Amino acid sequence: MDIVNQIENIISQYHALRTKDDESRKSNNPDIVPKLKGLEASIQALCAYENIEINVSLGSGRLPEKPIVYFRDKKLSKSGNEGMYIALSILPKTAEQKGRFTLSLAQGMTKLKNELGSKEAANKVLLRQAKEIARKYQEDIRAAGFTSCLDEALDAPHRVFETHFEIGASLSSEELASMLHMALGIYTDIAITEQIKSDANLSPDIIEATKHQPNRVTRDILERRGQGQFRKQLLEKYNGTCVVTGCRVEAALEAAHIIPVKEGMDMSPDNGLLLRSDAHTLYDLNLFIIKPDGQIVWDTSLHGSEYAEYRSVDSRLLSEQVQKNLEERIKLFTDVV
């Protein structure tokens, strides 16, 4: 079953399946949980981001009514009560509402509210943070089809951007997946930017680039999905597999240039690598190189991370021209890596 159908089934059946213990009035939703876990598994298969944890929650309160799928980077959030995360929120069908689901970049409020002593004080801080981020990424947010907190239409101080879909809307799973990848691209860019700001071991060139062009990587993510013919050629050349991680989820794979287009305008498959989207982002930031023999060398900031487990590319995939281009890239960026 595709993701949109799974979500709409949860929306339409939620209140019929929702149960409660009459004594505690606390719902354990035994019939809903398997459906949510099935949705979580489908999304996990689609969004294989190394740095993103995906999990479902029944929502808050004694009798939860709004299930949520959370997408979190540990550098930005540990729970729905704090930090920043992507949320796919499900608003079930009731007598009063048709039912819908939303996709947003949100901030947890509970921990901050407890620290500051009031919801009003927490809202002021969250709104200021949301606007600061939205201003940096506004062009990308709008290009991806979201409404940001800078627009009057979004009146929620804890959300940076959001979009919603009514049940029965003509939305395909492919369209939802595309918007989800756009949102995760922006979110990952924010996480990498925060890591760079806090890591004194990173190259000054990278820190400076991030400081002055905070949404450069995200804009590349938004654009690179449109490299139709180039991407098709790389999907065929590399058998639909990320050369670094081995990921075979096509929706998560992107066409990466070895020699940046601005340097040589080479759009041939021999100037390309098929990379999972998060690996592509790190490659564009020059946080790793691939040597002509296939050896992967990671920036010191990623030593000890899950990425460092990937140590080589199958050299049989690297044609003679690909190897030459890899060598040329190393020469171009030796001052960065």
What can you see in these coordinates?
It is a single chain. Mean pLDDT is 79; it is low at 21-25. The protein is of the alpha+beta class. Helix 1 runs antiparallel to helix 2 and helix 5 (173-198) packs antiparallel against helix 7 (216-224). The chain has two domains: 3-179, Metal Transport, Frataxin, Chain A (2-Layer Sandwich); 226-332, no CATH class. A six-stranded antiparallel beta sheet has the order 1-2-3-4-6-5. The protein contains eleven helices and ten strands.
Given the helix and strand composition, which structural class is it? alpha+beta
Query: CATH top level of the largest domain?
Result: Alpha Beta
Principal-axes shape call: globular
Strand order of the largest sheet: 1-2-3-4-6-5
The radius of gyration over CA amounts to 21 Å
Number of helices: 11
State the order of secondary-structure elements, H for helix, E for strand: HHEEEEHHEEHHHHEHEHEEH
* pLDDT averaged over residues: 79
Question: What is the total number of structural domains?
Answer: 2
Helix content: 40-55%
Query: Can you tell me the CATH architecture of the largest domain?
Result: 2-Layer Sandwich
